[in-house]
Amino acid sequence: MIETLQALAEPNRFHIVELLREGPRPVGDMVHRLGLRQPQVSKHLRVLSDAGLVDVRVDAQRRIYALRPAPLKELEVWIATYRRIWEGNFQRLDSVLEGLKAKEKKRGRTSR
Amino acid sequence: MIETLQALAEPNRFHIVELLREGPRPVGDMVHRLGLRQPQVSKHLRVLSDAGLVDVRVDAQRRIYALRPAPLKELEVWIATYRRIWEGNFQRLDSVLEGLKAKEKKRGRTSR
DNA sequence: AAGACATATTCTTTAAGGAGGATATAAAAG
DNA sequence: CTTTTATATCCTCCTTAAAGAATATGTCTT
Fold first, then answer.
1. Which residues 3-62 of chain B have a CB under 7 Å from nucleic chain D?
2. Range of A70's domain?
3. How confident is the model at residue B107 (pLDDT cuts 50, 70, 90)?
4. Between A29, A69, A80, which is nearest B85 by CB?
5. Where are the beta strands (DSSP E) in chain A?
6. Which CATH number characterizes residue B14's domain?
7. B7 within some domain
8. Number of neighbouring beta carbons within 10 Å of residue B82
9. Do B92 and A14 touch (CB under 8 A)?
10. pLDDT tens digits for B32-44?
11. CB A71 within 8 A of CB A4
């Protein structure tokens, strides 16, 4: 999960993922589209690959990279667990705060 | 979007967000739970705040931090656009590859 | 076999960001 | 007004990671 986020957090890698959304692509193609140099692209692809975000298929001299859905799926599931936060108004804030500091006696006003 | 990912990609910040899922909390509370020191927590909260992931509310000397749904929502929407990738099998790979290199004449076998 | 092409890897340099520690600010309590 | 509590900010150090350049590997073409 963290690894997925770290991989996506780099702008160039994010861009690569966006490119791959259209379909699998060889490295050279991405080099042209991204305006990066080949070694950089290969390196970023390595990170994405280690994070399980992409898959390689060898086609003669070239390597065809494709997106792997699993990590993105996992990320989506994680975010979905937050949905209750913006759907149910869970703002039972006061009870939480009261519980935190048991030593505080009264002091009725919340603000100052 | 990138900023959201960068903010979440740091393990401690990710942890903070997880904590805040249970509800708003003052800094000191997180300091205890995370086992980090107060300046670090404040610094991470700063990053999260700049990314729009959290919101502050002043209560006397303490600051109550709460999650802000917007960025997570946005992230979820982004990921959702990828769903067609793992739902529809978009693997019209061959057409893509053929289109890429127009100079390649024939060479019928795909693999090697 | 020789040369061209596609990609990966290694090494070095450099910049970003996190940790530690000290300190500043502001409000509350006595 | 002095002290304590809560939090933010500043500065330095150190680690991580990205960029650049050169080179290695492997495959195709002729």
1. 26-28, 31, 38-39, 41-43, 45-46, 56, 61-62
2. 1-101
3. very low
4. A69
5. 25-26, 54-59, 62-67
6. 1.10.10.10
7. yes
8. 19
9. no
10. 999 999 999 999 9
11. yes
